[in-house]
Amino acid sequence: MKNRSLALTGLLALLLGLIGCRATTTIDAARLTQKGQIYFEAGHLDEAINILNQALDADFENPATHYWLGQCFQQQGNFTKAIIQYEQAVRFAPAMDIGQIALINAYHQTDQIDRSVQATRLYVRNKSNNAADLVLLAQQFAGKDMHHQAVVAFQRAQAIEPQNAQPSLALAEYYFKRGEEDKAVKALVAAFRADNRYPGLAARLADYGIRVELPEPPLFPKPSPVEEKIRDLDL
Question: Is residue 16's pLDDT more than 70?
């Protein structure tokens, strides 16, 4: 019994030692990553890459290390290596916005449009439940001439807030700027379906020959059966 107790004590000590070692290496990796970032921002790419690789040796699952290493490789013009690092970054931290955007942009810049669009779909699916955030993201994509990615973000904004006309109106304006009037008008129709009382929307659709009918609101709400009985008692 005594031997078994000693064995358990030894095993516990070993596990605590491993946990402590893991914590130490994680802290070391974080410090090395910060140091690598400083070298990167100073333009010393070779030093940054060397330090960031040391950080990965200490903790391979640190997404920030992979991201900054990807930035170094991209700055050197090596998009193949950069994409590998961005993929690792979002693998270990799917909610890492800068990693996701870097990966989407890197795919796009290397003409891997389908992969970029797919990465965008995965990103916006989990990014936010706020349509305004997604509209802003879509407009940022549009500013980089990333058309397909912008539309994905606009459409996700429409889907998560189906009674909000703003995402569809933003999409309509985007299509108008691109000269795609038919798609723009369809987006206006989608905005009307989302909120048929949005100011000026019905008149704007009428300018394009689309007539919409607004339901007439009841002058007085119909009372419930209970309310009718109570009202009769008061007469």
Answer: no
pLDDT at 226: 73
Per domain, the residue ranges of the chain are 22-123, 128-208
What is the dotted CATH code of the domain comprising 128-208?
1.25.40.10
pLDDT of 231 reads: 59
What is the pLDDT, as a whole number, of residue 105? 98
CATH fold of 22-123, please?
A: 1.25.40
Angstrom CA distances, 212 to 86, 193, 205, stand at: 48, 10, 8
By C-alpha distance, which of 69, 61, 19, 62 is closest to 40?
A: 69
124-150 confidence digits (pLDDT tens) = 998 878 999 999 999 999 999 999 999
